[in-house]
Design goal:
Elements: H1 3-26, H2 31-48, H3 58-78, H4 85-93, H5 99-112, H6 117-128, H7 133-140, H8 144-163, H9 172-175
Length: 188
């Protein structure tokens, strides 16, 4: 084992345990993310610090680990949450008492698949999360008027999809843009 490998191993053996305990507490018990943070902090220490100087590395490591946790938190908060159609509509459907509401939610879930991501996000933030247009706009990083417009257009699109029976399987001629109810003679 070379001196460099021995120094790195000593760094890990001395610092990894206490650093891991500290990071797990910062992350509220998330052990998997804590392992990633500890690994990144030790890697940065190995790259930037003089491991042979005898200086105290623990304060530096703890500060780097804390900064990594804060940076990760800020990154997750700055990015809008992705909305999966299935999860929040299913959450709503589990509390349904009557069959009619459950069936309506199933049809609505299928209709949601026809909406754009922006429209689904706007509906999720306003109706499911209970945010105002202004709060939803701040959360999504768009003006409140944009949220209002997206909600309006999303509701219109849902109504349109549900009215045309596209959710439950429209006829092929309706999907092709032909007038419903008209039968066209075959070429035979």
């Amino acid at each position: 084992m070379t001196d460099k490998e021995h120094t790195i191993r000593a760094l890990y053996e001395e610092q990894a345990g206490p650093l891991y305990t500290y990071v797990v507490r910062l992350l509220g018990g998330d052990r998997h993310r804590a392992e990633d943070v500890v690994q990144e902090a030790l890697l940065r220490c190995w790259r930037t610090q003089d491991l042979t100087s005898g200086q105290q590395l623990r304060p530096w490591l703890f500060r780097v680990a804390r900064n990594l946790v804060v940076d990760d938190y800020r990154l997750r908060m700055a990015r809008p949450q992705e909305v999966d159609v299935g999860t929040w509509l299913e959450d709503m459907s589990t509390s349904a008492d009557d069959e009619e509401r459950l069936l309506s939610l199933m049809v609505l879930k299928k209709a949601f698949q026809h909406l754009s991501v922006n429209h689904r996000e706007a509906l999720y933030e306003t109706y499911y999360s209970g945010r105002s247009m202004r709060e939803a706009g701040q959360f999504l990083g768009v003006p409140p008027g944009t949220v209002k417009s997206r909600v309006h257009h999303a509701i219109r699109a849902l109504r349109s999809v549900m009215d045309t029976d596209e959710v439950t399987g429209a006829h092929e001629h309706e999907k092709a843009g032909e007038e419903p109810g008209k039968e066209y003679p075959s070429a035979a």
